[in-house]
Inverse folding.
């Protein structure tokens, strides 16, 4: 069963001025499309073919084209979903409680998440994950690795992810990754992150 590239759930320019339309268009229509097509090619005719994407992240982990493209397919689906046009709300309810329990405050959380995203050398992702029991944890991973993959030093269920590959920001921000990370806080969809927290805690 082949995976399909879902349309972006908002217009390419919907996240401006924080993320520009051209970046969003290339990122979704070229990069995410390539991960999707390459994933389908990598699993075609193998015993991974009929698994869910979550199962593939675990069972296809040892096969490099599957690991890179399965991660790329999953990670970008999450990335589009946890952003929203019209600006972010602050986290509220039990996700806010979990963030405050782990980091003290939302501002302190942003400091720690920014640090994880900034210090990830080269290409990768910063994550907020939830562990069974409800504890949240920030971590980062290389390339298209994902916290659901075993043994990458970053675990739990990912409920928020930030792409820090240069293709995610270079057109608009050039080398200024910290500016891009700072802008990301303006477009987080905390309602979606909260629902993912509730479903996976
Ligand atoms: Mn990307």
């Amino acid at each position: 069963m082949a995976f399909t590239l879902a349309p972006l759930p908002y217009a390419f320019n919907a996240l401006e001025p924080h993320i520009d339309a051209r970046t969003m268009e290339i990122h979704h229509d070229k990069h995410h499309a390539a991960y999707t097509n390459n994933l389908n090619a990598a699993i075609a005719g193998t015993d991974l073919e009929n698994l869910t994407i979550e199962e593939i992240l675990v069972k296809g982990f040892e096969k490099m084209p599957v690991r890179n493209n399965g991660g790329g397919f999953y990670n970008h689906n999450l990335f589009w979903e946890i952003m929203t046009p019209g600006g972010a709300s602050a986290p509220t309810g039990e996700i806010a409680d979990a963030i405050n329990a782990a980091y003290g405050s939302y501002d302190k959380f942003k400091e720690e998440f920014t640090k994880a995203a900034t210090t990830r050398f080269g290409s990768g992702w910063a994550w907020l994950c939830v562990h069974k029991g409800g504890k949240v944890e920030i971590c980062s991973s290389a390339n298209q690795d994902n916290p659901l993959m075993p043994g990458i030093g970053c675990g739990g269920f990912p409920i928020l992810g930030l792409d820090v590959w240069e293709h995610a920001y270079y057109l608009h921000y050039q080398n200024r990754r910290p500016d891009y990370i700072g802008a990301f806080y303006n477009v987080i969809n905390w309602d979606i992150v909260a629902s993912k927290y509730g479903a996976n805690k």
